Sequence to fold (948 residues):
Amino acid sequence: MKYLASFRTTLKVSRYLFRALALLIWLLIAFVSVFYIVNALHQRESEIRQEFNLSSDQAQRFIQRTSDVMKELKYIAENRLTAENGVMSSRARDDKMVVPDFEPLFADSDCAAMGSAWRGSLESLAWFMRYWRDNFSAAYDLNRVFLIGSDNLCMANFGLREMPVERDDALKALHERIMKYRNAPQEESGNNLFWISQGARQGVGYFYALTPVYLANRLQALLGVEQPIRMENFFTPGSLPMGVTIIDENGHSLISLTGPDGNIKAEPRWMQERSWFGYTPGFRELVLKKSLPPSSLSIVYSVPVDLVLERIRILILNAILLNVLVGAGLFTLARMYERRIFIPAESDAQRLEEHEQFNRKIVASAPVGICILRTIDGVNILSNELAHTYLNMLTHEDRQRLTQIICGQQVNFVDVLTSNNTNLQISFVHSRYRNENVAICVLVDVSTRVKMEESLQEMAQAAEQASQSKSMFLATVSHELRTPLYGIIGNLDLLQTKELPKGVDRLVTAMNNSSSLLLKIISDILDFSKIESEQLKIEPREFSPREVMNHITANYLPLVVRKQLGLYCFIEPDVPVSLNGDPMRLQQVISNLLSNAIKFTDIGYIVLHVRCDGDYLSIRVRDTGVGIPAKEVVRLFDPFFLVGTGVQRNFQGTGLGLAICEKLISMMDGDISVDSEPGMGSQFTLRIPLYGAQYPVKKSVEGLAGTCCWLAVRNTSLCQFIETSLARSGVHTQRYEGQEPAADDILIVDDALEHTWQGRAAVVFCRRHIGIPLERAPGEWVHSVASVHELPALLARIYSIELDSEALSSALPTTDKTADSNDDMMILVVDDHPINRRLLADQLGSLGYQCKTANDGVDALNVLSKNAIDIVLSDVNMPNMDGYRLTQRIRQLGLTLPVVGVTANALAEEKQRCLESGMDSCLSKPVTLDVLKQTLAVYAERVRKTRA
Fold:
């Protein structure tokens, strides 16, 4: 509890610390903002100072240039004054000499004495000034040059430019400067003197420079120059709207061109400095002061603070706004965090304290033992009374084993048998308690459950034995019933070929139907029993889906023809030649769907369509039967469910067929769906994965390219499939509407020919035809609708094109003529089952063949050695010697007689194995009279040709 109270205090302290953290973050952001603004301000000041310096450089160049000009004039004046008066008089012959104007500066100034003493020198100097004015004065922009005698204080004026001069102001200023110069100390009297006089306009005045002229180390005169000065020339192009002022050494303003805020007031703190940059008091202006050597003047540039802050004013406003927003955001975040985190956490801490007390009471009153063991040594830290009792029941070895398990942390529970035979189950989880690694253990007395589990196990074993007995009983009974049923069905089929008395044929038909139904019921019950007991396994192997479809259609085609229906089988070219799966179970599912379609269809046809759908093989069975109501489709695959009432219930069955189909397809990783509408028919679609699929080589039948076939097919599905199949072989198809055909054209119809066809041949797709294509009249072929995919092979045969084994899907050749009597043929029937052997013998006898029988392969070889046998009809799986070894032995003996295999699984692999062993063909059980008749007729005719 102390820990929980401390935790609540920590939460309160954390809340205040979080507030302080938010404040510190805000202060940090404010400091960064101020630092950024100050940096921007300094950068702006640096830019302005650079502009000030550039402008001051122009003023400095002006002063320096004037000083240089004055030095040159001083040198010239000294040279002229040292010359004798008659030196330059010779020039009077060429030029008229000009005498400068003399002006007294003081009342006692003696200008006559100056004129007589320096007349020749002044005339020479005046002549030079005129020459200099005409050639160089424009470059230096001088108004005038004057010379003042040191003794007589009279000024000789050498005017260089015609311009008005403020005489009184100029003389007054000159008088003041001369007096200042003469009264200056000895050490300062040799310095040059510079001053400026303000003109009539602001920023425009006159710049004066005065320098002493010495002759023989004695001051003889003062030489001065006057030059116009314009303050606007001291600005760089495109500079700021700044103010500029030139001041003397005492800080007095001589001339100025003020900016937006007027004149600059002199300040003691920067007037004493030769160079200074900073703000005026009150931060009204930013000022730069620089001296202008060699004069004692200084130039001062100023710009209002508003212009300095103009560019960063928006930045300052943004920074203030940012800090206000950040402060508000941090305050809101801190407040929200407190309301959502700290305040609920404090409430949770209080509730946790209450829960701690509550949990202790629950642990104490729990019906199971609960304890906390230290992981290191297994010491009991906390436990309720029941756990304490259970722990005392454990032996020392059990305690050590429990400690090792807890330390290992590999399992979460352990079963222990205590010393008093009590079964304890100890489950635990690892956690932390009071800063230690612990295991929370729950001890439960499971003695009652253990006894119950033992009883349930005994009951399960008994149920398993009963299930095995039931399965064995069903399998045995089903197998024992199936064998005589095969005999009954075969003999009934044989009996139907006889001429029976009136009324007896109806009884035989009813017996045949009942026997077939009973056989199917027994097969369904056996399969469903195996599925429910998980004894039925899918046996995947490589098989050919094309052969499976051919086998199924061959089995059901007689029944479809007998019911006057049509069975259309469409196998798309993209169907693989082989894939991995269970062909037996696939055949069972498709046969069941096809059987139901035949059963529930009285008028119309049935379509078996096989194609590839992505990674699945799609098989669709569609009929035009009675259909299924929508409310009963959802229960269609339930065991023992029979559809509807009325018409549907007239068809008897167990209701297991579709349930078995759905389970078998699911075991093959596929799916099955149904789409039905009452009165329109039903469509079942099943899909199985294309595991290990091998696809056929996409090549057309050579020789058919360019041929023409005319189509007069009424069935739309049949017409589309024929067009697609023939287009793959390069055959050109057209709809026939009475056009005149060419000599090699072929007509394809699905009805009887109404007139004589003038082309090469006509192919009639007949729903009643069973077996391979036959030429019933010259140029008129009949083809089964159950093998439409074999049409290209028939066309190749009509055009006399040789085909390889891959192009042929029919294993049997045709014969042009069938014998009326078969009593000249001796057939050997080899089968180990007496009923099947007798049944085959009777079927052959009904077809007119002579027959001998053998029990197995060894017995068959004995019969062959003693009798002249024409055809061998042998079962495949037999004891002693099976049909494969029998065929191989016959071929080894050099016998070429036809050998036809009979098997219950005549699929692609079984058929291929039969052919590889030397057999000519393979038939699947049950073998009907029609199939047996067609097959044996082909080989009987071959034997007759061999005899001839």
